[in-house]
Amino acid sequence: MGVPGVFDAEFRAAVDKLWVPGMGTEVVAPLLASLVQFHRPQRVLEIGMGYTTPFLAAALAGLEEQVEAEARALAAKSRAHLDGGAALDDRWLYAEPPLLAPAFYRKPYRPRFVAVDNLSIPASSAPRVFETLTELGLDDRVTVVNADLHDCLDLLPAELFPIDLAWVDAWECLYFFDHFWERINPDGGLIVMHYLMTYPEGESILEYFAKVQRGRPGELEMINLLEPHKLGQNSITVLRRTTAGRPRAYGGQGGTIRYHRALQEEAAAQARQVEGDHVRPDL
Length: 283
Hints:
With 283 residues, the protein is of the alpha/beta class. It contains eight helices and seven strands; from the N terminus they run ααβααβαββαβαββα. The chain has helices spanning 9-15, 28-39, 52-82, 90-94, 129-135, 173-180, 200-215, 261-275, and strands at residues 43-47, 112-116, 143-145, 165-168, 190-194, 220-226, 235-241. It has a seven-stranded mixed sheet with strand order 3-2-1-4-5-7-6, with helices on both faces. Helix 2 packs parallel to helix 3 and helix 3 packs across helix 8. The model is unreliable at 277-283 (pLDDT under 50).
């Protein structure tokens, strides 16, 4: 069975059995899947299992296959361009697959996904999640930790840290921030929290985050997104940790790409890494 796509009819039929109207994640779940595609995290943590879990698992599994295919295609186009001593230029940049940064593809993409839930909420679909993951062939993609948020830290595998993406769909967002923030990747790791807008306790947590942001310049970025048509379960808050962010200075003025020697060396090294002995030693 191949990796299911989150927009496939078969996938939606399977996950619809996990949908609970009061949880409000019918839009958030595919948004998280798209965020995985965009952010490309290696280490993902979910607090609060349910409808979103198979979306994250499927997105990570599909992305693993996609990155492997992109790496092979990038190596092939770099080898074809560099063979014979040609320098990188716009023809290389826009050839399929276009715009890819060779440095990203120097290491394999093998994401790790851990989901935490104590299965204590009667209305939650969390107890049925693993059955759906098995139906979709994704059961081996998720490590489930059956524990309370307060007790789970020592139960999480060491290879999960630093966390690149955390999805927190639980009432204790402030506890998560206070106890897990230092374990988020300081080079742009994300925490996505569900439903902190439009009610007093949530707004207080947002003000706390804002105070941290003001008191620790360069520590984090924050954005709140509201679903204005809903009375509840109607927002997400995204925190991006920037404590040790590395600059990615790829382009010059006007967005033009700088084809410097380091970029050429990265492209050549990535091609050698993928194609091995099939690539000439002087590439």
